[in-house]
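Reviewers of the previous submission asked for a worked example of the structure-prediction workflow described in the proposal, so we include one complete record here. The input consisted solely of the amino acid sequence. No template or homolog information was supplied to the procedure at any stage.
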Amino acid sequence: MFKELLMPLLFLIYTVLSVGGMVLVKYALPSFKAAWDQQHQIFNIHALWVGTGATMYVVSFLTWMIILARAPLSIAYPIAIGLSLAGSSLCAVFILKEQLSTMGLLGIGLIFIGVVLLSRN
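From that input alone, the workflow returned the following structure tokens.
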């Protein structure tokens, strides 16, 4: 049973770390830049957030290496990219307060349908 859950768990870890890292860096960079521009501070809470986001992104890459060692590229890549695209778009809307059109929402829905179809392969 653990082997059946391993790949979905790895994709979940990859997606959360990849998307979380990108969103955290995107969120913290403007504040980090402002602190640098105003006081030439490089070590502050915003730098910690940027560093944490970058670390998450690096760990997601290591998780991706594990996925690649265990799954066919023709299945793993579309699933990983689809989940990352959908996850980052949704986080951009709900966390970063960016706008997403109706067509964008439809696209995310189609991505999820594609991920489900590929994962059943």
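The CA atoms of residues 32 and 47 lie 6 Å apart. We consider this example representative of the routine output the project will generate in years two and three.
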